[in-house]
Amino acid sequence: MPSPFALLALIASIAAPASAKGYANIPGASSYNGLNLVPQMGWDDWNAFGCNVNETLLFSTAQTLVSTGLRDLGYKYVILDDCWSSGRNSSGYLEEDREKFPRGLAPLISDIHALGLKFGIYSSAGIFTCGRYPGSLDHEEKDAALWASWGVDYVKYDNCFNQGRSGTPEISFKRYEAMSKALNATGRSVVYAICNWGNDDPFDWAYTISNSWRMSGDIYDSFNRPDSRCPCDEAIGCRWPGFHCSVMNILNKMAAIQARSMSGAFNDMDMLEVGNGGQDDNEYVTHFSMWALLSSPLLLGTNLATLSPANLAILSNPAVIALNQDPSAGAAIRKWRYLVADKDANGQGEISLWTRVMDNGDTVVALVNAGNAARSMNATLADIFLDQSTGGTYRPAEELATNWEVWDLWGGRMAEAEARAVIESGPSVSANSTMRYNASAVGYAEGLKANHPALFGTKVGTVAPHGTLTAQVARHSVGLFRLRKVAGMRDEL
Ligand SMILES: *[C@@H]1O[C@H](CO)[C@@H](O)[C@H](O)[C@H]1NC(C)=O
Ligand SMILES: *[C@@H]1O[C@H](CO)[C@@H](O)[C@H](O)[C@H]1NC(C)=O
Ligand SMILES: *[C@@H]1O[C@H](CO)[C@@H](O)[C@H](O)[C@H]1NC(C)=O
Ligand SMILES: *[C@@H]1O[C@H](CO)[C@@H](O)[C@H](O)[C@H]1NC(C)=O
Ligand SMILES: *[C@@H]1O[C@H](CO)[C@@H](O)[C@H](O)[C@H]1NC(C)=O
Ligand SMILES: *[C@@H]1O[C@H](CO)[C@@H](O)[C@H](O)[C@H]1NC(C)=O
Question: What residue stretch is flagged as signal peptide (predicted)?
Answer without folding.
Answer: 1-20
